[in-house]
Amino acid sequence: MRPSWDEYFMEMAEVVKSRSTCIRRQVGAVIVKDKRLLASGYNGAPSGLKHCSETGCLRDKLNIPSGERHELCRGIHAEKYVLYK
């Protein structure tokens, strides 16, 4: 069965998240206007910095629970990254 437009673009976000370099959580985002994909992005380290998948996650190393001490994370949210593009 053919997916709705919303389902179609949500599936794209699922595929995009596979490029995430975050060890803790993989997130993908897409920007769509008038049923057209404008941009896509995923969470991870900013361009020019080593990825957490290469260096390890500081929050993991310090056993920091999910939802705490976000200032230690070098990653950029997928939503912010896709808008930055």
Automatic annotation (TrEMBL):
Stretches assigned to the CMP/dCMP-type deaminase domain: 4-85
Keyword annotations of the record: Hydrolase
One GO term describing the cellular component: cytoplasm
Source superkingdom: Bacteria
Any Pfam family hit: dCMP_cyt_deam_1
Name by which UniProt lists this protein: Cytidine and deoxycytidylate deaminase zinc-binding region
Gene Ontology molecular function, alphabetical: dCMP deaminase activity
